[in-house]
Amino acid sequence: MATPYIQPHSADVPNERGYYGEFGGRFVPETIVPALDELTAEYEKALADPAFQAELAHLQKTYVGRPTPISYAKRLSEMLGGAKIYLKREDLAHTGAHKINNALGQALLAKRMGKQRVIAETGAGQHGVASATAAALLGLDCHVYMGSVDIARQQPNVFRMKLMGAEVIPVESGSKTLKDAINEAMRDWVTNVRNTFYLLGSALGPHPYPMMVRDFQSVIGTEAKEQILEIAGQLPDVCIACVGGGSNSIGIFHAFRDDENVELIGVEAGGHGTATDKHAARFANPDISRPGILHGTRSFVMQNEDGQIRETHSISAGLDYPSVGPEHAYLRSMERAFYTAATDEEALAAFRTLSETEGIIPALESSHAVAEALKRAPKMSKDSVILINLSGRGDKDLDTVIKILGDKLG
Amino acid sequence: MVEIRPSYGLATLHHLFETTAAQNRAAFMPYWAIGYPDYDTSLEIITALSAIGADGFEIGIPFSDPIADGMMVQTATQIALENGITVKKCLEAVQTLRSRGLTQPMMVMGYLNPLLAYGAEKLVMDAKAAGADGFIVPDLPPEEAHYFAQYCQRENMALVFFLAPTSSEKRMQLVSENATGFIYTVAQVGVTGARDTLSEELPEFIANVRQQTSTPLVLGFGISKPEHARTVNPMVNGFIVASALLREHHHNGKEAAIALAKAIRAAIE
Asked: How much is the ipTM here?
């Protein structure tokens, strides 16, 4: 029998209550606890159902275009003069980012559960676009909550969502960004829980979301492991991914978690620098970020001394979130993964470098991972291997970058 | 602190529901956010509500991301945050209200993260010393509550859990086994907010919960006018009015909010 596309319980975490060590759990209003119980049960059933697995595998192949390739970044590697750098090309997945892996999995689950109405939150708009795409494909009604600040700076994605028939609902509360979009999506779910599926976009939120999103994204690492062995003839010495909520990173880390010689590096948004208060590096500074509860899960949360959630900053909207998926907090506590940060400036430099040397314009999110590789590769030997998860393409960021670099090019 | 009340915590709540049951009515327990519209006025409003016959209070602690709350509570607590209200300041408010002679039960209501940031054990001790009787934490279901509950239990302070119309029979039993003081029954599937009508499924929901537990039930979410109070009065041991009072204040000012509370209180006499 063929291996299931998504392998259930392929890790020792979470436990049955959704805990990854001391992180995770389910801190939500009572009204939606029964819905989370139902979702957990239906998800388990779906995984055990070969027809569900086959449908997801089929769509991933014929619609998303999986497997996405691994590219050897030859000119970049030679320029840096150290480790060989390989890129897992999630930017080549349909809709231009890894988000579709999860959106499609959850949309299939919504359909299976008979929930015609799906809601989603989005920051940069990538998860919103992926959700609108999956909903259009499967004939579901899609409503996307998006902060009005993000709507203003991500117009092309707003148009994409509308074009595919989704309703984009502006969120005017709080900082009017991703955090507030999640708040509003949760309020919608609390209100319409009986007929609505909440299609959450990252490996965060209450159990089972961090587990389910990880599982749907683990296809990245499963493919990458096989491909790097074939192309490079070895496992990577270092695997690097950017970490906002943490879905692309947990998706690629997952396959390597038992390969102790593979160093796993998560890169957070360093914004103006982790010594300032304008960043989204949850693991960087214990004065402003420590374990707490946000959006139903216990993890590292950027907060003030009174437990109020801090506003964050990043050049990339997709990393601009004050908490981080609980499994990352766990991997860090176990010292299985390590976390560092790249500043806006470093990410922007990496954005340019990869464009110039490889003809690949990375998303600003993914540029943070590239920035870390630029720092490490020169210090590593020529026979060592770095694998970067290039989680998305940069076309969506051109407006942002034109404003900064416009007159400096050419 | 001068002990001005004969009891506190669980005993006080027990006494409250015995008293209202003897009077053949439910307890009227309004919510007010400390710091809305400003600190001093919020205390004046709570004092005025006490004078018109409120039986108990929910003392609202603000949080930046209140996912169980509708627009009115969001607005009020956001203003409270802008006014610099902290957990510490809310406990000071409780203490000040006690020193002004307020004797009704006071439940501290807030989301978990600010409470944990303050420190669970310290919070329970300080709230008790200030004169509060227990805690209502909307994002803390019983499965996750052990850490907080151990201190409440040790100090005889109430820790209230919720039941909603979506709750299964199994969850009704779980909440019944764990809730102390009372169970907060959610009148509407949704977030807090004033509403024109009560849910049609309310009588059946309350009847189902009653079958599973003998713990007092306090109803909240959407109870907005005197006729709602009249309807729920025979069904539950108490009820909470929050958004409707805040909304009345928002549109028509302090006296109007107190007048609405007075009319609601009169409806259950």
From this structure: 0.96
